[in-house]
Amino acid sequence: MSESSAALDPTRVLVVCDLIAPGGGPTGYTYNLRAALARTDSPDVDVRFAGLVLEQRNRATGEPRPAPARTRRTPSIRRIVGRIRHEIGHALKSGMTPRLRAQIAAADVVVFQGFQDPRRLRFARSRGKATWYMPHSPTLSGDEFAMMNAGRAPGKVARTRRRMIRDERALFRLADRVVFPTWGAAGVYVDAFGGILATTPTRYVLSGVPRPVLRETAGDDGDADPAILFVGRYVAHKGYDLFLAAAEALAAERPDLRFCTLGAGPDRRASDAVHDLGWLDDPTPAIARARFLVIPNRTAYFDLLPLEAAALGKGLVFTAVGGNVDQQALLPDSVLCAPSELAAGIEQGIELSADPAWGHANAAAYEQVFTDERMAERWLALFREWRSERGAERRALWLVPVAPIGGVARHVLDATRAGIPGWRITVLCPEGALAERLRAQDTPVITGAFGPDAGFVASRRTVAEAVRATDPEVVHSHLAYADIVSAWTRLPRTARRFTTEHGIALDDGVYHRSSAQARLMALVHRERFRRFAGAIAVSRATRDAMIAKWRVRRPVVVIPNGVDAPEQPRTPAAGTDRTTAPGLRILSLSRLSAEKRIDRLIEAFARLHAAHPEATLTVAGEGPQRDELVALADRLGVPVDFPGFVDPEAAMAGADVIAQLSVWENCSYTLLDAVARGLRVVASDVGGNGDIVGPERCVDPDDRAATAAALAGARRVPRDRLTTPGDMTAAIGRAYRPAGEEARC
Length: 745
Description:
Blueprint: H1 3-8, E1 11-20, H2 25-38, E2 45-53, H3 77-93, H4 98-105, E3 109-113, H5 118-126, E4 130-134, H6 141-148, H7 154-174, E5 177-180, H8 187-197, E6 202-204, E7 228-233, H9 240-253, E8 259-264, E9 274-278, H10 284-289, E10 292-295, H11 305-311, E11 315-319, H12 323-330, E12 334-337, H13 342-352, H14 360-370, H15 372-392, E13 394-399, H16 407-418, E14 423-429, H17 433-440, E15 445-447, H18 456-470, E16 474-478, H19 480-487, E17 496-501, H20 515-528, E18 534-537, H21 540-550, E19 556-558, E20 585-589, H22 598-611, E21 616-620, H23 626-636, E22 640-644, H24 648-653, E23 657-660, H25 669-676, E24 680-684, H26 689-693, E25 698-699, H27 704-712, H28 725-736
Parallel strand pairs: 1-2, 1-3, 3-4, 4-5, 5-6, 7-8, 7-10, 8-9, 10-11, 11-12, 13-14, 13-16, 14-15, 16-17, 17-18, 18-19, 20-21, 20-23, 21-22, 23-24, 24-25
């Protein structure tokens, strides 16, 4: 995209955070990002913010709110009804004002900062927006809520915790992309939601803070001597109690040391060894006077406070948990210790701080990496990457509910290997041989609980997760099971459903156990076709059957399966090209089941063998009729080889004629491969067989004499009747174009 077009059509981004104010957590992070972007010129990316903006530092300490100093009003019916209406309205709207809905509708990308109601993400997805989620809690939001409210109404706290964990799981499931500051900060979420994150694109954007401004303060603690300082909430997961215990132990041995705490919280306690500075709206002067800072978290995300201290050139002591490990690696003048060894870590900091230059390297690292401008640049690069990905290739997700290698799997392998021009194809399938082959040819593949063995509910959930992970423009299902799951899985409005029909027969007995089941499935297919934007059939017969049985109203595009012919056509050595019956080698490659009508082939071969005993028949494959077919060959007294499963390539190399007398075939790969390799073919006059081999090579299997004669006089099929995989995928690409769209260059 050129600069001029970018300016005319910028990427529109909305960052949603309920409160935007100085401090920590999502509130302070979003405040810093907003301020930095306001100073950054980016005509190709238009970033706006939704939330209440304050300039006063956010005090999220977890302290109980003081009781209001007013007389409690007497309840009234009007007041109770008003409260109920407010709660119902909030529940229905999920905290979404009409203004927020309009802002989301106008955006291309919506970034949700911190824990929020998942219904906001559902709304954004329903409007076709890219939805990103960035958590900010050092642990799951529900667990943090429980820690901050320990001792209060335990039953209510437990219920709220469970609801918040359930909602946070939904946030991860609904997000198209998840953003963390570093890998270490993601650890607790990977442990809890690893299955979801495994299929969700994840990006890492290092945090940043503005350069601290030192202001004159009136009425500080009156003691300018440098202190070892803790800043933050007075709660257990911030390590407040660990700091007090370490300070008391060290002060007993070193009375000259000064320890201070700055903040507030429900776990505050008095200590003779530690001076509590209390809450300060601007902690910068106290940090600037400190000897060094201690970050003693029991659980850590990627705190902003150490970055502010680094900007002031202060040394730091971290506990080795979560994002602390990543911060310590990026800030050279810092110490890392286990939470249980905090006193030893502080002692090491005391030794290092004897050098007045300790901490200066942190200031240099801040300038290079952790300014808010650097953070803004990283976010802009992420938005541009998203725009570039969407502009370079369109995305399609193929749903394939089978794991073994069969006809449909072959179609998928050939199509993804050839590629659809202008499209990036990702395949969702169960783990197995198909997935392994796709990976071997570098095709993007997602595996999971999908297919008949997984069940409809699990399959639907897996499809929804894959759609969220790939953000496709087209969801293309193969086989009836995938078609039905796709039809009843909610997709973004921008995604269009396509289907390729590989298996339908005019004879209900081919694919259904009873006529009642056939009628029920016909009704299901008629209904699901209402939700599909396009349909592909692998043969004209398949298309005609779809229209006849399912009453498909929309156009059905016929795109036959494609095969690559060998570079050198079959040129048998002298004396081996059998053009008459003696010594003829006949091969059947199919499942040994009733619909393949191998019994008719054996009976026709018996007629041929009576006149030409040198002819041979190999029936390769396995199936429920094996014993019955072996017995039939013995009864007729003809030598038929039943080798079981074989390598098709090797089997065809040793054959002259391929015979396929099925009740129905849509677009048989066995016949396609036989034609591509120059073999002669005999096929039943059903389905798409005539399209492949020509009607003159088709027979009625019930006419054993005619079938025997066709086997004896079989001829090759011109290879120009075939479609290549490249031709096939080019046609699929044309089918994907919305009506009226010009071909893309």
